[in-house]
Fold these 3 entries.
Entry 1:
Amino acid sequence: MNLVVLQNWLDNASFAILFLTMLVYWGGAAFPNLPYLAALGTAGMAIANLCIATLLGARWIEAGYFPLSNLYESLFFLTWGITAVHLIAENSSRSRLVGVATAPVAMAIAAFATMTLPSQMQASEPLVPALKSNWLMMHVSVMMLSYSALMVGSLLAIAFLIVTRGQNIQLQGSSVGTGGYRSNGYRLHKAAELISQPPTPAVENNGFARFETSSNGNGNGNTAVLNLVTTPESQALASAEPLSPQRLSLAETLDNISYRIIGLGFPLLTIGIIAGGVWANEAWGSYWSWDPKETWALITWLVFAAYLHARITRGWQGRRPAILASTGLLVVWVCYLGVNLLGKGLHSYGWFF
């Protein structure tokens, strides 16, 4: 079979398989009592991943260079990365909701590459001189894999917000660091200890309750003060509709796996940016030129660096980091595709301009 015909067949097959897989995952979410749908969805993602890998391999053989030189190739490489990261995330979390979030995005990207791009943009062409370098594979492939991981992590963060209905819930076991929810849990625990002690009558103190307890038997009493302060956050927690144990368990799984997948994508993004700087110095004589793509890559790095810093150092988990990761999804798309649609730059060749 001609390689071009094989590629045309594989890209359409990939789209069709991803579309059916999306329906399977959505059906599994709507009818959770059908366990075979989860296995069927995983199989569909694996088959789509294999079809796209074969497509890229055939493209590589036909063109003679690594298939990442134009938008068509880049989109399918991104789709392959999303399906690969999906399989890792689903195997780690054992949750079918991963596919509910990732399958429609993978399908939409494949549909855009197959049905929207004109045929001249889908055809392979000789590389421009700046792309005739081994850095094409080393830099671009790492960047695309980082985009895939960061997108999947951000999609799972959005799924977390949907499952929790945007409530600021307290999770157990997935926080990192010494701040945030972990210290809140400690304060709540100590407050429960104080409340359990038999107090003396409360002394009025500007609207707060102060309880005095004696800590020894020699008449020297110590005072333990418990300020019952009503904050907007505590009011929201008190007024929020409680989630079922199943939702809480699913939310914790999504929060944990989202953090881990973003933790995988961030070092890949860092390596890709460094490799791009080295390649830029060889091609253009400068490590950094504030090209739109470079600028947005830095913005993307800063957003997810803030996310990881908040989780590791501040101990954030739950709604706040999920909102930050959800914002990161938009930033990744602007970095990957938006700057090529909005303006020219050193990275615009082989794309729309």
Entry 2:
Amino acid sequence: MKVLFVTSEAYPFAVSGGLGDVAGALPAALRKRFVGCRVVMPLYEDISQELREQMTFIGSISVPVAWRRQYCGIFEAKYNGVTYYLLDNQYYFKRAGLYGYYDDAERFAFLARAALEILPTVDYYPDVIHCNDWQTALLPVYHSLIYAHKPGYENIKTLLTIHNIQYQGKYGYEVLEDVFGIPSYAHSLLDYDGCANILKGGIETAHAVNTVSPTYATEIMDPWYSYGLDSILKERSYKLSGIINGIDVEVYNPETDKVIPATFTVDDRSGKAKNKAALQEQMGLPVRSDVPLVGLVSRLVSQKGLDLVKYAMEGLLKQDVQFVVLGSGDWTYESYFDEMAARYPEKFAVKIGFVPSLARQIYAGSDLFLMPSKFEPCGLAQLIALRYGTLPIVRETGGLKDTIVDCGEADGYGFTFKTYNGDDMADAVHRALALYQDQDAWQAAVTRAMQQDNSWNSSAGEYIKLYKKLLEA
């Protein structure tokens, strides 16, 4: 079986979020399961010179973008044994950052069309083209309208993964012909709610659609979560499924991690206590082994449930507890956490910004990890926390519901709450603090947390099943 993974970002070349982590890990996991997988992505300006020096130029083609034809240079690189094709067009990609430009519609229309056009040049005709989010959702549209009956393309199946339905690629109707080159008879494929919606076009034309957790696949058919796409997803529910993401267990490995002050194992966790003391000292908190330390690493935006945190924090700080927060985002949350740190210096510490090494130290040194999201397609932070023996406190939504079992159950290794309510979140925190006082029960839960298999191996197996189902259809 051969798969072409098309993405707007991928580790280690260019990453802005979870999609980049997935695109860096899933193809390698598929390859270990004897599935041929290659990756296509843009050659961004931000890609380091060190990585560029490892690339090989293998040719160039001319790509149609509506009435234009645009140059496309093809560079090949290897990462974790996987072949990556990085597509060069300086007009589209020689800029700082990945997204947020006025012509993103045209930039990613080029990516989608180029990913199909390069197949003869690289001599790789996949069985499945796996697209990701709105930036590549035009690829199934182009395949359906233009390529499906061409030699070499006729048996290709397309899969579209929705990593976050909030981002859909909405534009005015003028882009349909002038930018995308979609003929008038096919405008209805992208027409939705008064605009041209790229993600909707991908949902309509892809042979299968999935998202990054089973619960999120159900949730996005509900108006509360769907950002307007619930009706089309209900109509296409027969081709919708959910597969939970994994994490790279070699990168996030407490036994070998060189970023944290002390390594540790599930059987010898003395190093975890050293990480806690080091984190407390670094963040200016009293170094105490007996106080539960709660970590929060997040974008500081409302999606992450920070309104609940603001509502409950004053009450929680009346307990014998410490909080460490790392993140950046909305000014209202940044200033609030700065205020808490100033008012409660013995109990609350914050670092505004994102420091990857500090994030790792918070995962390793905290006792608890707070993640009360309003919605969470999958979530990786709770999986990383488990890996480091830090028990998550999460709302039962999306991937958080699918990956965390409450300690109220015999096999629990975290704390959950259902409704988007500050009192319910506070209750989950209080239950966690109470369990911490029973160290035998606590350590048993930590053992169960560290024994969870959240590697890409099992997730890759589920994707292989989905690919096979597509090919058998």
Entry 3:
Amino acid sequence: MRVLLIKPYSHFPTRIPHLGLGYLATALRHAKHTPLIADCTRERINCRGLLRLARESAAEVVAISMFSADFPVVADLIPKLRLALPDARLILGGPHPTALPCDTLHQLPEVDYVLAGEAELSLPRLLEQLASGTVDGDAIPGLAWRTNGQIRASLPRWENDLDSLGFPAWDLLKPELQRIAPHGAFVRQMPVAPIITTRGCPFPCTFCAARVISGVPLRARSIAHVLDEIELLVRRHGIREIHIEDDNFTARRKYALEFCEGVSRRFPGLTWCCPNGVRLDTLDAELLAAMRRSGCYSLSVGIESGCDKVLEAIQKRINTDQVREKVELIHRTGLKTTGFFVIGLPQESEEQIRQTARFARSLPLDHAQFSVFLPLPGTVFFDSYVQKVGFEAVPWKNFYTTDPVQWPGGIPVARLGQLQRQAFFTFYFRSRIFLNILRELRGPRHFWHLMRRALAIFKPMDAARRIASSYSNEKSKPSHQ
């Protein structure tokens, strides 16, 4: 079958190749299907261009990967795809459908199926059954489907042997198609490619949906398999820097040390970093030194709050003294550090938010990200939010970290926006931080990229969306034609 895999347009600044669709494309090829990937954000494909690409592909199946923030875009796109490809089967997957498979199918009636969890096994199996004319939903892990006027769902399955999935279809992902700072604001060398080495999250943080989205068991690829993929990226695509996109790369200390040894041995001169974040309590001096020797130059770390009461409430399993100790250790090792913080958590006070901003400034961080809390599907906070307001009242059209969702009885969203801007301003407009950023600039295009990101924080949300729409409204340039 001809299968069109879509990552819809998003205003978020991350511009890395979509690894999930790359792995799906490999699985489809193994099953003798013909996949095509349309990454609308990276390739600047607007809606009109995507519909043209869909018609020209004559796809028999269209599969869309979506986050919760993509809901309004996907809801608008699906009826148009149905008109463009009236006989195609429409399938949704990704984080949002994984967290809410039955609700997603109910809300989007023109969608045929939802696949929750890892779909490298389930999507080919579904296509096989579609070709046979009979779909047995119970035999397909993670499938949500309609039967006799009801919506049913089977439990997802998590693949233990990650090596068996092969490499993502890098020829379709085109890592050499570069954007300024694909993940995060800074890189050392171009071109850059993302990889994952592990899947799963065993940690119970209540604000995060990783356990639902990627499974609780932490599973890892073999080091040899990871290094062979880097070899392919370096030799075939000219990659000079690797970004590890795992949720928990350093959770297994021995594994991380073996990775560092392998990279040092096989890829001298390669740089790498962990922009998606690692847990501070998994780091020690020996591991950090090995990371730096092997070419690592930057770590993002999940700090979340500068208040111990808040950290305890969200089950972070770390306190501010431990945070300070680890961040100072990273700094002494010579690695750049970005701290991730969440403000506006339920029951968090304005003073606790200001305490978090002060705590961030007191640490030897190079960068900081202050995200406004969202009750993400798949978290206990989402369940609590729905109990308070009702599922039908969830504002999917405004479900962004830059456009806060009002928590019932919580700090007003306008005030949260002010506190967020104050946190950014007081952190970045200090001489040490500002001069370091100037030293990291790689030219005028990089400067204007950072300015656009700053405007998305310091200007109202409608201005940020206008900036984002300048990409989505560009002349479409699908690279697959």
